[in-house]
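Box 3.1 A note on notation
Throughout this textbook, protein chains are presented in two layers. The first layer is the amino acid sequence; the second is a token string describing backbone geometry. Keep the layers aligned when reading.
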Amino acid sequence: MPDGFEKNEDIENLEEDVKPANKKVVVFNFILIIVIFIGLFIYMISVDGIDNIIQLLTEVDYKWVFAGIVCVLIHWICEAINLHMPLKKMYPNQKFTNSFKVSMIGQLFNNITPFSSGGQPMQAYELTKTGKRVSNSLSAMAMKFIITQTALVVSTLIVVMFEFQFFANLMQDYLWIAILGFSLNIFAIIIVILAGIKKRLITFFTTPIIKLLGKIHVFKNPEKTIEKLDKSIDNFKEQFLYMKSEKRLVLKMFITAVIQSFAYYSITYMVYRAFGNSGVTFWQIIPTQAFLLLIMTFIPTPGSGLGAEGGFYLLFQSIFQYGTINMSILFWRLYTFYLPIIVGALFLIPTRREK
């Protein structure tokens, strides 16, 4: 259990371990996000007409809108809990309020950086302000990532098994992509597990590949890349040893992650019902929403902009009533994208007690 360190030294090492988001990149991404939002709004007006939009807003069932907000809050709280639990083990004085703040800052930077790459570095950076080692912070986040991804894939596959016929009919031409996507997720989890228990097997395959990529100038410094990968694998190995000794903690985090996944997937169902749609069950929407989330992870724009909206339209247009799909997309993105950005940004505002 950590019992103190030289903070200046740890912050100096931060540059090697994590890189806080570049301000110019963040500003550019914010502008891109605003442009996408304005573009979506203009598209809605041109397709649906302002009169239809106003009518939809007056007819929307606000109890389902409120239910969607509850789902968002559950998702946020579970996210924070799964960060808090391993940190609390390392630092008994860690407060949940700080874990929640760090979690929301992570969501902010995940949404405004390509491939959600900015969240973890900014979380690690934020945790150094309260005396946490960068290595310990990254270890807690690695543990959270492994468990969350496993819970996401397992829970989704179980639901797909029970609702496979509906899922297959809805996906039609996209079914092979769904199968490929879920397979890649399972493969990624297996690779991570192997990295934790069979380091030599992973390095046997990765080292020659990195060297080859270095020769064709994909990597500027392949030796340094191999060294960083070796360090990352050692970190994963430590996490697996730790998780093996903390089975109760892992189980708690897994259950929390399952609840978090279902809370996120439920948002789509709440939007579906808010606009007077019916006939499709909660359990039928979940696997399709899980597949959409999978598509979004491969889209390089901040918050998977344009790809998320387009994917939602393609996958759900057949089950939403005519004239409601565009407004549903806007509400869904407000819940899952714009709201985390706004709330996360609020947590960046310094308080009087902070330097």
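Residues 80 and 103 are 5 Å apart (CA to CA). The chain has one domain: 7-346.
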